[in-house]
Amino acid sequence: DLNEQFRSYLNIFQNKTRGLSLNGFLTKPIQCVTHYPLLIEKILKHTILNHPDYRYIQQAYECARQLNERINKQIFSNEG
């Protein structure tokens, strides 16, 4: 039976992922990406304004923020 095989696969999967469900496994990368703006913002706050990398960190923050915004819009449009 296909359902039995799938359940067996899920059990093997959960053992190999330390109990992480398939849904948890699939959403993990998105959860990590959504933390990037916060992390980059902290780096930016601790970088002096005249540091040569300051503007690149600002750009990275803006890119991460926009990506996060697009991900959120996509998630909410799929739920609605």
Concise account of the structure shown:
The protein has 80 residues and is an all-alpha fold.
Could you characterize what this model shows?
By secondary structure, this protein is mainly α. The chain has one domain. Helices cover 81% and strands 0% of the residues. The protein has three helices and no strands. Helix 2 packs antiparallel against helix 3. The longest helix is centred in the C-terminal third of the chain and has 26 residues. The radius of gyration is 19 Å and the shape is elongated. The mean pLDDT is 91.
**C-alpha geometry:** elongated
Tally of alpha and pi helices:
3
Distance between the termini: 34 Å
From the alpha carbons, calculate the radius of gyration and give it in angstroms: 19 Å
User: What percent strand?
Assistant: under 5%
**Mean pLDDT over all positions:** 91
Main β sheet profile: none
Would you report the number of β strands?
0
Helix amount, in percent? over 70%
Q: What is the H/E string?
A: HHH
- Domain count: the total is 1
Q: What structural category characterises the helix and strand content?
A: mainly alpha
Low-confidence stretches: none
List the helices and strands and how they pair.
Blueprint: H1 2-16, H2 22-45, H3 54-79
Helix pairs in contact: 2-3
Descriptive key words:
single chain; about 80 residues
